[in-house]
Amino acid sequence: MTAAKTIDPKRIDRVLARHPQGKPTALVNLLHDLQAEFRYLPELAMEKAASYLNVPNGQLFRVATFYESFHLKPRGKHIATVCTGTACHVRGAPKLTDHISREFEIPVGGTTKNMELTLETVNCVGACALGPLLILDGEYHGNMSPAKLDRTLKTIKRG
Amino acid sequence: MPIRFKINDVAVEAKPGEGLLDVARRNGFSIPSLCHLESVPAIGACRICLVEVRRGRRSKLTTSCNYEVLDGIEVSTDSPEIRRHRAMNLELLLARAPSSEAIRKLAAQYGVSQPRFGPIKYNPLPNCILCELCVRACTELGHHALTTVGRGDRKRIGLPFNKPADTCVGCGACASVCPTHCIPMTDTLTKRAIWGQKHDFVRCSECGAPVITKKHRDHAIATKGLPEDYYDVCQSCKQIATSQRFAAIVW
């Protein structure tokens, strides 16, 4: 929760200014932009966005909680996404999530205390031939193994 | 130009844009439903108001609440097939709301007493069937204090940002329209507790009965242009006062 307190309202306003005021249709784009700025959607940003677009808080919250791509909890600097689709699963995806969970002491969906890494899963990204697959900050790493994981995640600070 | 069509072989008329369920009920046909109120937009959530609509050679089962009437359609409100589908939907609803009296009763009429499904794993508001009638009522009244949160099997009725909304005036509309009465609301003589907030009641200056929450009164007076003292006296005391005034004139 400490991250939420340090949100600078000016940063929110700068993002809001890029969108037309009072236009509810800009909602999803604005939420995407806010998330690009903060890596998640802080409550203050959502409240400001709602009044800026003239959308009721409830309607904004409905949209923000509906889509998987919006995150309401602070996320780490790096995002490790493990594919758990059928092909990746049989090729050992559970070993990858278990390994990262153990090494960084976070559950799936969790973020390390130093806000360095968030572990997530995705159901399938269509790269089944490369499974098991790890996506680190948007970069695809195929044929993963726990040993290879250590090398890939080497630069990320523990804690 | 009125729209003319047939319900169970009886000719009826409607205005363009009207919902089939409203037209049917106005003409005396009974169609069961859980999530429909004439005063809020129909969304076809409970799927109990299923009817069969024939249009030319095509025929389909559809929810009547959000079906806009068309010229020349032939509607039937009851048939073995319709009953079979309603029974299935009621069985699913019963799995979500096993202890709801209203749903148990309706399901029993369709021969369903024990659902083959459930118990469902996630329903933080027990017996809620997610028909969103509460959300629609709240929105229609202009409060926007309720919303749905999440989706799929994690969908629930909740508050914006999961915290008590300052736009909630404690009117209790959500709780009173709920078909399964699943929204907790407790009233005492002085206070109403709902959605994590406590609202003070305005008490009737004659008999002391709770009239309306203070926040709701302020909201209603501000938005509807009512006189300041409109809610000082409760409805029944007002009726007594009016009848006494009439009595004084007559005698």
Explain what this protein looks like in three dimensions.
The complex is a heterodimer of chains A (159) and B (251). Chain A has 159 residues and is α+β, with helices and mostly antiparallel strands. Chain A has two domains: 2-66, no CATH class; 78-152, 3-Layer(aba) Sandwich (Glutaredoxin), CATH 3.40.30. Chain A is built from eight helices and four strands. In chain A, strands 2-1-3-4 form a four-stranded mixed beta sheet, with helices on one face. In chain A, α2 runs parallel beside α4 (43-53) and α4 (43-53) crosses α5. Chain A is elongated, with a radius of gyration of 18 Å. The model of chain B has no long low-confidence stretch (mean pLDDT 94). Chain B is an alpha+beta fold and 251 residues long. In chain B, β6 (147-149) and β7 form a beta hairpin. The interface between A and B is medium-sized, with 12 and 16 residues.
Which consecutive residue ranges of chain A, at least 5 long each, have pLDDT under 50?
A: none
- Give me the Rg of chain B, rounded: 22 Å
Predict the CATH topology of the largest domain in chain A: Glutaredoxin
Q: Which spans of chain B of ≥5 residues are poorly predicted at pLDDT below 50?
A: none
Radius of gyration of chain A: 18 Å
Number of strands of chain B: 11
In the CATH hierarchy, the architecture of the largest domain in chain A is 3-Layer(aba) Sandwich
- Straight-line distance between termini of chain A: 17 Å
Which term fits the overall shape of chain A? elongated
* Structural class by SSE content of chain A: alpha+beta
Q: How many distinct folded domains of chain B? A: 2
Largest sheet composition of chain B: 5 strands, mixed
Assembly context of the chains:
heterodimer
Order of helices and strands of chain A: HHHHHEHHEEEH
